[in-house]
Amino acid sequence: MSVAFVPYWMRGKAVVDQETIQRLLEENDQLIRCIVEYQNKGCANECVQYQQVLHRNLIYLATIADASPASTSETTA
């Protein structure tokens, strides 16, 4: 199960740290590899569940990025 899945009763209580983000990025890497493998075998329908998990992870990461302070933008400018 994806590390991004959080039961409704726990939402808003999770602490997001670098380790969690790194695990999500690694999971996304594996999901993309699996999706590509299924598509190369001509089994595009079988990869839909992996695409859904990948989508959920990407939305979760984007939400974290949007909620983060813009300090990284200021240091690179």
Automatic annotation (TrEMBL):
It comes from the Eukaryota. Residues 15-71 form the SS18 N-terminal domain. Pfam families: SSXT. InterPro entries: SS18_N. Belongs to the SS18 family. This is SS18-like protein 2 isoform X1. It comes from Octodon degus.
